[in-house]
Design goal:
The chain is mostly helical and about 110 residues long. The chain has one domain: DksA, coiled-coil domain (Four Helix Bundle (Hemerythrin (Met), subunit A)). Helix content is about 75%, strand content about 0%. Helix 1 packs antiparallel against helix 2. The chain is globular and about 40 Å long.
Length: about 110
């Protein structure tokens, strides 16, 4: 992969990371606002907070994967499958720039 492509992926990953961090910040601010009010408001806020934590688990995983991809760019290993070490296709990286595995190895990871 050439430097121009790596620069593009790094820019894309940094933007995705910033978007997720902004989302976390907004969720935390909303959760703080939901702590005031009567019992019904507080109960509703607790449910929303619980749902927010469930959603944010996936977002945290995505953030971890983005951070790992950025480290790989710096280390010179970006775009290589973590399992078989073969290159991940550009089509897959375009769709999921933080992909850790090629399509074949991802399928193996997801199979029971």
């Amino acid at each position: 992969m050439n430097k121009k492509e790596l620069k593009h992926y790094k820019k894309d990953l940094l933007e995705k990371r910033d978007d997720l961090l902004q989302l976390f910040s907004n969720q935390n601010h909303e959760n703080e606002e939901n702590l005031s009010g009567d019992e019904a408001d507080i109960a509703s806020g607790s449910l929303e907070k619980e749902l927010s934590f469930e959603l944010s688990d996936n977002e945290r995983i995505m953030l971890d994967n983005i951070e790992a991809a950025l480290r790989k760019i710096d280390a010179g290993t970006f775009g290589s499958c973590e399992s078989c070490k073969k290159p991940i296709t550009k089509k897959r990286l375009k769709a999921i720039p933080f992909a850790r595995f090629c399509i074949q190895c991802q399928a193996k990871e997801e199979s029971p």
